[in-house]
Amino acid sequence: MRFKLFVVCALACGFMAYVLANENVSTEVEDQIIKTVPANKAPKIVEAAEFVEIPEELKTTPAVKKVDKVSPPAVAPAAAKASSPAPAAAKPQAKPIVQAAVAAAAPMKLSPVASSRGTDDILTVAGLKPQAKSGALVMPLEYLGELYDVDTSGYNWDPNNNVAPPDTASTAAGGYTITSARLAELRQNFMYWFFDKDMYGGRGDYQFDIHASMTQLHKNLNFQMPFYGFRFNYTRLSLNGYLEFSDPPEYLTYPLVFPIKDWPVKRDPSFMGIFFSKCRVGRIYPTDIDQRTPGVYWRVVRDLMGRTDRFGVEVRERTMWDIRTGVVGADTFVPKHVVIATWKNVSFAGGIDNSLFTTNTFQMVLATDEVYTYAIWNYAVLNWLSHTEAGGDTTKGEGGTPAYVGFNAGNGTQAYEYKPYSQNMVIRDLANRGWGNGFPGRHIFRLDEQILIGSCNKDIDAALLPLTFAPESGNMLGGQVVNITGPCFDPDIRVTCHFDTESVLGTYVDRNRVICVQPFLKAEGYIRFQISVGTQRFKWRGKYFVETPAAATEKIFFATDDVHKKNPNEIRITWNAFNLTSNANANVMISLWGYRETKIEPQLEYIDVIEASLTNTGSYVITPSNYLNRHNINNDMQFGFLQINLTQPDQYSNLALSPILWSRPIPLAWYMAPQWEQKHGKRWPRALCDNWIRADRFLRNFAADLPLCPCTLEQAVLDKGRFRPDRECDKDSNPSCLRHRGAIHCVVSGTPVAQGAEQQCCYDRYGFLMLTYDQMWGSRPRRIHNLGKMPWNEASKVPSLSMWFHDMRPFYSCCYWQEEQAVGCETYRFERRPSQDCVAYQAPGVAGVFGDPHLITFDGTQYTFNGLGEFVLARSTDQSERFEVQGRFQQMPPNYYGQVMATQLTSVAMRGNTTTTIEVRLRPLHARWRYRLDVLADGRKVYFDRESLKFQHFDGVTVYTPTYLLNQSQVVVQFDAGIGIEVVENEGFMTGRVFLPWKFINKTAGLFGNWSYNKLDDFTLPNGQVASINTNDMRSLYYNFGLKWMLTDRDVSGVGAALFTREFGRMASYYSNASFVPNFVMNPVDFLPANRSYDVDRAEELCGECSQCEYDYAMTLDRDLAHFTKNYYETLVNMQTENAQRVVSCGVLQTPRFGRKLSFDFMPGAKVAFECNEGFILVGDQRRECLANGLWNLPEYGYTECLREVYYTRRIAFIAIGIILLVIVPLMLCIVCGVYRYRQKQLKEDPHWQMPVLPRSRAGSARNLRVLNYDPEDDSDTDASTLKKTKKWDLDMNDEDVTSSEGSDNRTSTKRATDISYINKTNAAHATGEKPKQTGRRSLRSGSGTELNHDGTAIDDEAGHHDDDDDYDEGDIHTGTVHPAGYHQPLSPEEADHLHQQQYSPTFSGVDSRTSGASSINYTPQAAAQNRFGGVPVLPNNTQYYNRPPSGVPQATAAATATPVRIAPTQLTQDSGLPSPPLPHATSPTPSVQKSTEV
Question: Taking the model in full, what pTM does it have?
Fold first, then answer.
């Protein structure tokens, strides 16, 4: 028995010794193997076909002398590498390409060659025949210097040296600079560095602690490495072919399925599996070329960006260029840290006999800049597929379930299995596929956020295959070079790329890459992108994002705003030269393009070459004066674009393709102005504006379709359903506001209205709405939305271009290039694009959910519902306008005391009537380092981390994130119906808010209740009944209301079906649990134990009076949750309070033309003053006030206007005339009416009554006065033959003119008029024998002023002079009769003749001559040149007078005495002098009708 035990122990010891002997090769054997002379590795000759230029340094191969020892080469600082022509310092687009082959190898150079083992039937990289491999870099034929590159320390820098170099990192200036030849030598090697020795006698990179009994080691990275959404600073290196970041499950079931569905019950590891299978350290043959010790190797090279030591520089440059040339979209990647893990000669677990010699060798290279992570997988040898536990045989490792190849994010999130190789028999092809950098067996991936493959896959086939391409977006105008990876390409097979509705042919680069140039696409947002290889159908597909020209990534920059001016002197532009090429000697061409819509099809046309050939320096100055003599046939184009492209791209790369850089839309006055001036004259802006106005008036009116602008900036920011920030004027990202000066923020319609229009609302620094009625920089609605309208291929529907053609173009021609008060500008502002005021604006209704969770309905009801599962938050009950908003609630993580019986919001899904389904979900805890929220559009993740992707439009819905956020912690979703959903995340806690317009009042249901402004119907059930629930009874609310709105994957009447994206087989039942019983007590004092009074006090301290905050802290003990619960609660309540307030606005108060308002406020209490421009006069009220009732106060002095001075004077004159007419005409009418009524009254009393005659002249007034005061006793001694006027009548200046034609208003006045005094010269004339001379106002005078007789003799002024009394008394009146009416009737002519003779003066009528109070005259019929009134007859010859009574005398009496007067006297002539008096029988005219006439 003892002997048997001894034998067993001996055998066991022998077996252990045998195993240990085979686990590690002794150092002596290794040294012997190293001293052997190896064969050379077969050269790899490749054809480079990369879309990059070949640096000049690589085109000529330098001759290098062979030396035994060389000193360190001259180096430059790391910062100076940017200017070096070496690929190490090349710019993002520079990719060195070398075509060469190794002519000979030195005896000391180690290179893997074909294995001599005849039993290996699996092809390895070493066993392949030499062949051309696209993209592989090999040494130039003449280059031999590096073969014996030994530095001063004695280290040989042969890439295949198994001794590690000095690991002293250096960042000192003047370090090592790599040459292109050295880089080519490094990149021709398939495997990266791994060392089993170092210069200090150590084991190098070899991990001797990893073996069969200890399969993994913990490794600290000491930097952050992003992986599959997570980020790790550590890893575990496993013998089993993977790097893991968390514990694997206790046991594995084959085939492996990841992620683990039962997580967190079962562990779900996070790992990178290059060959996930149970392994053990194998053995090698003594004849193998590479005699490095079998096992696992590990090397980390950190902080490469600043390193200048040789090894650090070589690792950085080799890794950088392998990734840049191997993965599309990595053109700017620079590795910061590199990890190299190598599994050399590992065998499968469970094998027997010689299975240890059946080994695999593979290597994983990880490179990261702590934002992006790339992995290079090199499969050198694959001789076995599976281990015995997975069903493989024990000798060859064949059969069963092959190894798992792929990635798992862990924590039950997501996984990527590399099909068709993973767990499939074709896994052996991994060593022959991939073609990364032209090497068969090299596969490259991008790992940071999603797993993107960078190498081709020819073994997969399906109806829909994922396509990898970069960039994933481009300008709508085209020219974007898209690199495509997916299937393995052949240069002889045609590749067709299909962009939405446009197809282009692809250009072959290498087996792993094809390039397609994006054409001009009349579309926006995500479009279908697919390729076809040969005669295959389009099965490789993806989504390509089309950027609108106005919102595309800006690639041509304007230094100033001169390009917008009418006549600038110069325009300075800049661009990133490396967006075209890194070759500094390349030439570029700058051209000008324009756009117009004169036909149904959009017209994007070439205009002119700005610069035909220019060195690509990245800057240029455009001089508009150089284009004065241009005569373009398409000179009606008013806006366009600058384009920059390479002139001869085939000189810098192997492809005759050039990237194209486009500018943003720009006006073209700087180029077209001379041609427009020739066509329209000096005032060409007015002509262009008038043409546009005429055309625009024929188009439909679109203003009625637009939503009204909010009155203030606060209201605009809170209206998440209808408005989003305007890219042109955003307070967070673009405060310049070029076309809205004075504004600090603008918002526009989130989605186009039904007719495709867009509203714009701009706000000034005070937060008030800016109106075009006030200034040209105000808010301007747009006929065409920037997103266009389907179908996009018609005029007036093209994204950005149609908007510029209809809305931006006229702004320049009508306003920007003219004065603000120009007629065209005012027509543009007031008629064609007027701002809409906010008088009828209606703030949206708001409801929200937050915390664990707490809900506030649209009507303001607050309650707590801790449901577990997916529930309806809000949905429409109107079938014509449907929408659904759903929320997923998951259980809170456990706290210090155990499980937390409460839930929180983790995802929100939403959909409109027929729109794209949008889901916003919370990312796992350790996956929030870059993005806080995931956004899925119809199940596909979308990202917003670039400016051009900040606003993304899908079918019927727009999704955007604030421009100042890069981590997607706030997402806003806007539907066409005006519905908005905002999701915000902070420290892992979400809140969701829903914004609804008023048209959904009484049309909502769900956990947010029915929006009816009535809290009693908030708890409406899916069947339409209203549950009577007390909000304090959380149990009743949970069972009788909340659970009724739980969702399933099938459509339930009144509830609907779940909209959430299903991944990895997780359906609604995975998240839902109706049996979950939460905590139904709200007050922490009531549900916390008495010994936790500290938590109660802490809750009160943190939360104050917020009961929701106290509840959340008491349940979870999470201070962050309590803080954000309080924050979310207060924000939501403030929103509801703000929106519930009645919006009062006085609306538009128009600015007077040629004037201005001193303020633009239109809210109650605002006082607006006016001013006029120079040369204008303000008319009307100088200030207006907005009243509390929303109306402007009525103007006291009329509406405000600004008039030119001449117009103002005219207006005043017209107003005066008008006032006079308005006063006098009614007064006269009143007088006439009064007189008429008085006459009718008098006639009714006395049928014979006559209206008294009103005096018609001053003479008549004097006559009446004299008649009324006539004194028959007055004896006048004046001579009737001659009179001389000695004095004019006058009135007292202080008295009334009682002798005026209107008469005296004071009929009882005793004042008397002083009339003219006359001197009787008759007696003097008779005494001298002279003829009597007429005297009066016009007497005959000599040239010296002496009075003359009719014969021309002088008159003695003193003779017979008589000064009459100027006073007039009652005795001076003539004798007459008194009419019954009460007035004095003058005597008839016959009666007057008998009484006395009267004098006559040409100045006065006959009545005056008879009633003059100054003197009387005797009538002498025989007197020559004298009539019976003593006057000179000067009346017309054909005039006849009749003796008639006054107007008041009855007609019968007047008719009896009427007789013809006389024949007209002889015409006065110079010879005859005054005419002779008429015949004696001629009757004198009636004094009452005789009119005085001056000679």
Answer: 0.73
